[in-house]
Design goal:
The complex is a heterodimer of chains A (about 280) and B (about 210).
Chain A: H1 5-49, E1 57-63, E2 66-72, E3 78-83, E4 99-104, E5 110-117, H2 131-134, E6 146-149, E7 156-158, H3 165-186, H4 208-214, E8 225-226, E9 232-233, H5 235-239, H6 244-262, H7 274-277
Parallel strand pairs in A: 6-7
Antiparallel strand pairs in A: 1-2, 2-3, 3-4, 4-5, 8-9
Chain B: H1 7-12, H2 28-33, H3 38-62, H4 71-93, H5 95-101, H6 105-109, H7 112-120, H8 127-157, E1 159-165, E2 168-173, H9 189-213
Antiparallel strand pairs in B: 1-2
């Protein structure tokens, strides 16, 4: 018997509508749960990298259309998510996308890497989740040496997984890009750019033009002077980069002052000790 | 109606006589690609079995209403929906399992065993028999994948993994890599073809022996 085209189209229509409804229902029923589960996966990865960090602060930022989740721990440790699709310098993985959680210490050294999700070949590329492979990243920073897989470059830092050079390469370039991102956007050193042409303690000089574009300071700050382009830059930014050691000296001076006030001006200002005056380590 | 067979036979035929991977030679893509360890074979097999049973049941129920010419697209829509739902619910309620098996799930849609059984069996038989057929074929598939994966893992890596999720691993070390070099090629793609070839030969040899007895 020949089926009429109307019946065929109708049947397909009904089936696809039912399938669509089932999927929509399934999505609605599971959406929140999946988001919650993902959050727990991230939290677990952070705990694995920084076991001592019980309650990290969570925030997110958008990069290349994707969310980067940032977890800050007391003491300056930062863990954040990164993916192979976030930077052009990252070599493509074998399948889909790899998402990782990178833990970085305040000095820009990798403290640990965990794979959050991936779709590499089971048994081969999937070995990127192996602690033996991941632990190689611990203690590395951008100046540690050549960020490459040993198979590509004998001087490379990372021993790739046999049979999965593509996945290893993707991981290596991704962790490197993540560190660069950390230095650019997340590190403690990331503060308003120095006013143009000034030399910072760590020796970097910021071209005048870029500094002005990046930084527009409040105009009401006392001691602010206009720079060459008429932008007001407060004195405290012209003078120094934020530095805990200097802050400590300031703290001491304030306490000193309070003591002298209480004593009715009889006590003399104390001399700063040698420890206070030794220059801070260059970071 | 297919020829008269008992419900028990519907179930057992998938294990040996109509073993999907060894006799029907269906679903070769997952068979060859994911069987790099015993656990991977087991995981892929069980996930496929779940979808196969579900699709067999649904298709045996709706087959009567579907015009012949549009049956294939209809079945594909049903299977794809089922796989996506399984994927979503697994991600929501068992993230651990989803992470362990997650990469296999989308592969199930393209497994021709499922479409094959829908077309060859479920559309012509009742719900109960289709369910048994799905279960039998699925377990036969699981068994073959597990054996294939185990052989490849033992020869290619010196270990046998039954379960693996993050730090929870059930794995035996058969021999130490430091003492004996494993044959890496068995973990790689060519090893899958070689092992499958030997399994097919072994299966046919056993059938021949049994045939000679009769």
């Amino acid at each position: 018997m020949q089926d009429s085209p109307v019946k065929m189209v109708g049947t397909l229509l009904v089936i696809t509508i039912l399938a669509g409804a089932a999927l929509a229902g399934g999505n609605m029923a599971t959406r929140d749960k999946i988001a919650e589960a993902r959050k727990q996966v991230r939290a677990r990865a952070v705990r694995k990298i920084f076991p001592a960090c019980r309650k990290p602060s969570e925030s997110s930022m958008k990069v290349a259309g994707q969310d980067i989740w940032v977890y800050r721990c007391p003491g300056g440790n930062v863990a954040f998510t990164f993916s192979t699709k976030m930077d052009k310098s990252i070599s493509s993985p074998y399948g889909g996308e790899i998402k990782i959680m990178v833990g970085v210490g305040p000095s820009g050294t990798v403290k640990g890497v965990q794979v959050v999700s991936h779709s590499e070949t089971p048994g081969l590329g999937a070995n990127i989740t192996n602690p033996k492979f991941l632990n190689q990243f611990k203690g590395l920073n951008l100046k540690s040496g050549k960020w490459a897989v040993k198979k590509d470059d004998p001087a490379g830092l990372i021993d790739g997984i046999s049979g999965a050079t593509i996945s290893s390469r993707a991981m290596t370039t991704m962790v490197k890009a993540a560190l660069e991102f950390f230095n650019r956007r997340l590190s403690k050193g990331h503060r308003p750019r120095l006013p143009g042409g000034m030399k910072a303690r760590d020796g970097r000089t910021v071209p005048r033009s870029r500094a002005i574009r990046r930084y527009s300071p409040p105009r009401h700050v006392p001691g602010a002077k206009p720079n060459t382009r008429g932008v007001m830059i407060p004195d405290y930014i012209r003078r120094r980069v934020h530095n805990p050691q200097i802050d400590r000296i300031g703290q001491k001076a304030r306490e000193d002052m309070r003591r002298r006030m209480n004593s009715g001006g009889k006590e003399l200002p104390s001399k700063p000790s040698d420890a206070d005056l030794t220059p801070p380590p260059v970071r | 109606m297919a020829d008269k067979t008992s419900a028990w036979q519907d179930f057992t035929k998938g294990l040996w006589k109509e073993n999907p991977a060894l006799v029907l030679l269906l679903g070769m893509c997952p068979t060859l690609a994911v069987t790099t360890s015993g656990f991977n074979g087991l995981g892929m097999g069980l996930a496929s079995t779940a979808v196969l049973v579900g699709s067999n049941v649904i298709i045996s129920l709706i087959a009567g209403f579907i015009p012949k010419k549009v049956r294939i697209p209809s079945y594909i829509v049903v299977i794809a929906t089922l796989v996506t739902l399984v994927d979503m619910f697994m991600a929501a309620y068992s993230p651990e399992l989803h992470e362990a098996l997650g990469i296999f799930i989308p592969l199930i849609v393209v497994n021709c065993i499922i479409l094959g059984r829908a077309e060859a069996f479920a559309s012509r038989n009742g719900v109960w028999r289709s369910l048994l057929d799905g279960l039998g074929i699925g377990l036969g598939f699981t068994l073959t994948l597990f054996v294939l994966g185990s052989i490849r893992e033992i020869l290619g890596n010196g270990t046998l993994t039954l379960f693996q999720y993050k730090d929870h691993v059930l794995r035996w070390v058969i021999f130490y890599k430091e003492a004996i070099n494993p044959i890496l090629v068995f973990i790689l793609a060519p090893g899958a073809f070689i092992t499958l070839g030997f399994l097919l030969a072994a299966k046919n040899y056993i059938d021949q022996l049994r045939g000679a007895d009769n």
